[in-house]
Amino acid sequence: IAGKVAKAWFEIIENSQQSQLALKTMNTFEKNQVFISNRFKNGLASALENDLAINAYESARATYSMRNRQRSKSKRKLELLLGGFPDEKMHHNSSSLPELSGTPPPPTPVKILEQRPDLISSRLRLEAAGYQLSASQLSLLPAFSITGGPGSRAENFEDLLDNKFRTWDIGGSLTQPIFQG
After folding, report:
1. What is the pLDDT of residues 117-164, one digit of tens each?
2. What SS3 state is found at 142?
3. Fewer CB atoms < 10 Å away: N or C end of the chain?
4. Tens of pLDDT along 85-110?
5. Any long-range contacts for 26-29 (C-beta under 8 Å, 24+ apart)?
6. Host H or E run for residue 166
7. How does strand 143-152 pair with strand 166-175?
8. What phi and psi values does residue 90 have, to the nearest 5 degrees?
9. Contact (CB, 8 A) for 145 and 172
10. Mean pLDDT for the chain?
C-alpha cells in the first residue's frame, strides 16, 4: 500500500503542475484571441484567423478543465488510500509524503472466500445460467423490428451521386414463435 500511496502522491504533484501549465497556456491563448479579435474588428485579420484563435482558446480552456479533474481524481484516490473520506480537503506539500496509519487490517473471512477461484467460477456459471434462462424466456415473446437505410438508384452511372436520385428504404417485421423446442 505504501507504493500505491507514493504513486498517488506523485500523480497529484504531476497533475498540479500540468494544471498550472494549462492555466498559463489558456491565459496566453486568451490574450492572443483578444488581440486577433480586435484586429478582425478593425479589418486587419481574416475571419479564419479569428476563428482559429477562438478555437485555440476554447481548446486550451477544455485542457485546463480536464487537468483540474485529473488532479481532483488523484487527490480523492490518495485520500482513499490513506483511509480517509475523499473530500479533497487534503493539502499536499511536495517536500514530504503523507504518513501511513500503520498496517491495514486483515481481510474478513467473507473477503477471503470471495477471492477463491473455485467460488468465483461457480458464481459466474450460476449468473450465466440465469442469463440463459432470461434469454430463453424472452425468445418466447413476440418480436418487433424496424430496419431502414439510405441509398440511391439511377439508370445512368453519373446520376448515382445526384441528390435527385436518393432513396430511403424502411421496413418492419413482427414475429411470433410457433414451436417451443
Report:
1. 888 898 899 999 988 888 888 888 888 888 888 887 777 877 777 777
2. coil
3. C
4. 655 555 555 556 556 556 666 778 88
5. 26/57, 26/60, 26/61, 26/63, 26/64, 28/60, 29/53, 29/56, 29/57, 29/59, 29/60
6. strand 166-175
7. antiparallel
8. -75, 135
9. yes
10. 82
Rg of the chain on CA atoms, in Å: 30
Query: In the structure grid, which three cell numbers stand for residue 30, read together?
Result: 486568451
Residue whose C-alpha is closest to residue 21's, from 64, 52, 56, 54: 64
* C-alpha atoms less than 13 angstroms from C-alpha of 83 in its C-beta half-sphere: 10
**One-letter amino acid of 10:** F
Ramachandran assignment for 40, one of left (phi > 0), alpha (psi -120 to 50 degrees), beta (any other): alpha
**Residue 140 dihedral angles phi and psi, to the nearest 5°:** -80, -15
The sign of the dihedral angle between the CA atoms of 78, 82, 83, 88 is: negative
Torsion sign (Cα): 74, 79, 85, 87? negative
pTM of the model: 0.48
CB 98 within 8 A of CB 82: yes
